[in-house]
């Protein structure tokens, strides 16, 4: 995930991230740039654990109509916020690998037309291994995508079945081969802390995954999400997940194995070789600006000097009808105050291994945390300060209690006056 189908703010899981100071590998973070998130809401089958904005349509969908709506919403957003250079585009879902390559190509072309793609812009497509075929993948590459994120979830067939996945581990590996034949930058997702999973199971499975030589991995702890089939089973006592302590051991094991393989975490659930971090993810976590296009997409954009939080209609056909009637599917558009932006920025930045850039917080939100509060939290061992880089990050137990840390820091904010 990237995170976020709907909202990148809700990156799963809210688990700790280790923060070795040496791992500050990502260079210029002063201005994360502008990104575009495009949400494709359809899936072949609904996975029982998933609460993303994903819908199954046995009769399919009118892709031409949807394409026209995406283009109209892009026009509308561009007219609202003005010119930008696009550093990253992320097609998330749902299952964007159900899109025709021509649809993807037309959207990319239109993004370039309304804003302009920066040279070397990152263009990622999320793909379900059950809907990967060679012809389509070469079509996506020709259409302009240059990075793929595959939803493996597990390398164990019985677990894939329990997770309600439409693919086997063999198909996942075949999808990886197809992806590698077409793309240089590939990531895959795994879910751990699955029912009955032990540390030994995960050690073997993650080691197998690392032996595949990924340069980027998203490793999510299974979360029981409200409204999902898994929640019903969980509440009925028919599904159990590892208790908090076991989940924390699984998390630490994840850090140990990925670090040893050169894929240290750069964010709570995201791991990469130095330089292979997802630029799109970094726009979210460094609190950059992003437009959200498509059903149930969220955005944070600047318009006429105002920072706006936008969200579009989630239901695909309702979104379509709204765009056809009024050129956009936005259902909420709220102005974000500096204080709210500061809290959001803290929440996102503390998850990063590089930490939150205090100078940027001051520049954007006009505040800085009270030095005494920082000292107290450092004394408690829940945050760490990198004096040279002017950054703070959550460490140790702090990685599990981000909400509380944000609350403390936020209450301590003092205004910064620039000469
Ligand atoms: C939009 S999906 C990825 C693309 C595609 N739909 C697929 O599943 O293959 C985003 C990722 O979120 C993760 N995810 C979704 N629900 C989750 C949950 N309840 N707990 C942990 N991870 C979850 C999965 O790893 C999934 O690959
Ligand atoms: S395929 Fe992906 S988006 Fe669709 S239901 Fe499954 S996890 Fe969610």
From TrEMBL:
The keyword Cytoplasm applies. Keywords: 4Fe-4S, Chaperone, Cytoplasm, Heme, Iron, Iron-sulfur, Metal-binding, S-adenosyl-L-methionine. Its main location: cytoplasm. The keyword Iron applies. Residues 28-260 form the Radical SAM core domain. One of its GO terms (molecular function) is 4 iron, 4 sulfur cluster binding. GO terms for cellular component: cytoplasm. Belongs to the anaerobic coproporphyrinogen-III oxidase family. HemW subfamily. This is Heme chaperone HemW. It comes from Candidatus Filomicrobium marinum.
């Amino acid at each position: 995930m990237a995170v976020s189908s709907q909202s990148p703010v809700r990156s799963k899981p809210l688990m700790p991230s280790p923060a070795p100071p040496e791992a500050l590998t990502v260079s210029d973070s002063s201005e994360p740039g502008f990104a575009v998130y495009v949400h494709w809401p359809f899936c072949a089958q609904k996975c029982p654990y998933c609460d993303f904005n994903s819908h199954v349509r046995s009769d399919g969908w009118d892709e031409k109509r949807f394409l026209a709506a995406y283009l109209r919403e892009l026009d509308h957003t561009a007219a609202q916020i003005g010119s930008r250079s696009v550093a990253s585009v992320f097609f998330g879902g749902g299952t964007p690998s159900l899109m025709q390559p021509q649809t993807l190509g037309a959207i990319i072309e239109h993004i370039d037309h309304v804003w302009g793609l920066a040279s070397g812009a990152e263009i990622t497509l999320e793909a379900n291994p059950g809907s990967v075929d060679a012809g389509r993948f070469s079509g996506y590459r020709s259409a302009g995508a240059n990075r793929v994120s595959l939803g493996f979830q597990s390398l164990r067939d019985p677990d894939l079945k329990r997770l309600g996945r439409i693919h086997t581990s063999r198909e996942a590996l075949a999808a990886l081969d197809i992806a590698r034949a077409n793309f240089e930058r590939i990531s895959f997702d795994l879910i751990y802390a699955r029912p009955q999973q032990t540390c030994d199971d995960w050690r073997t499975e993650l080691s197998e995954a690392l032996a595949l030589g990924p340069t980027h991995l998203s490793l999510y702890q299974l979360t029981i999400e409200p409204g999902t089939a898994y929640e019903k089973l969980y509440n009925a006592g028919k599904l159990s997940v590892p208790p908090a302590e076991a989940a924390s051991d699984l998390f630490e094991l994840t850090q140990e194995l990925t670090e040893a393989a050169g894929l240290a975490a750069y964010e709570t659930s995201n791991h990469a070789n130095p330089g292979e971090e997802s630029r799109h993810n970094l726009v979210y976590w460094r609190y950059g600006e992003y437009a959200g296009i498509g059903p149930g997409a969220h955005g944070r954009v600047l318009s006429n000097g105002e920072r706006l939080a936008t969200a579009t209609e989630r239901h695909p056909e309702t979104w379509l009808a709204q765009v056809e009637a009024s050129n956009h599917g936005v259902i909420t558009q709220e102005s974000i105050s500096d204080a709210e932006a500061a809290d959001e920025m803290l929440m996102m930045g503390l998850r990063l291994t590089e930490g939150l850039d205090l100078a940027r917080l001051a520049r954007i939100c006009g505040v800085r945390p009270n030095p005494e509060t920082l000292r107290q939290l450092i004394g408690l061992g829940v945050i760490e300060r990198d004096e040279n880089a002017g950054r703070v990050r959550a460490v140790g137990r702090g990685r599990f209690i981000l909400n509380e840390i944000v609350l403390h820091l936020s209450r301590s904010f003092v205004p910064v006056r620039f000469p």
